[in-house]
Amino acid sequence: MTLEEKKQEIIEDFSLYDEWLDKYEYLIELGKSLEPFPEEKKTEDRLIKGCQSRVWLDAEEKEGKLYFTADSDAIITKGIISLLISVYSGRTREEIAADDFGFVAEIGLKENLSPTRANGLVSMINTIKNLAENGR
Quick check: is 51 catalytic? Predict the structure, then answer.
């Protein structure tokens, strides 16, 4: 699935729900589907700065593509990072760096988060872009 197709799929998934409470439930379910994140990788250098919750993000490059793993100590935040890595994991650095992450605005995520969670979302996006552009 291309990056554009994946983003469109997420937009369609979110459009199935009328209420934000249902969309939060969807995010929580996404977070539960994350692969277990090894305790030994929960290090300071993998923590995303600017998140109120603790969010760890790791990137590994294989065959020219970045693969992300992540975890958070907060359920909605875990869902948000899960959503982002479901879109961007397995993409090239160039694809990620060139993307505008506009689908996040299309689903209305930032506007429907508390200010601290919205800041955390921006930090997650910036960290993913930075890892694509500069590595760790």
Answer: yes
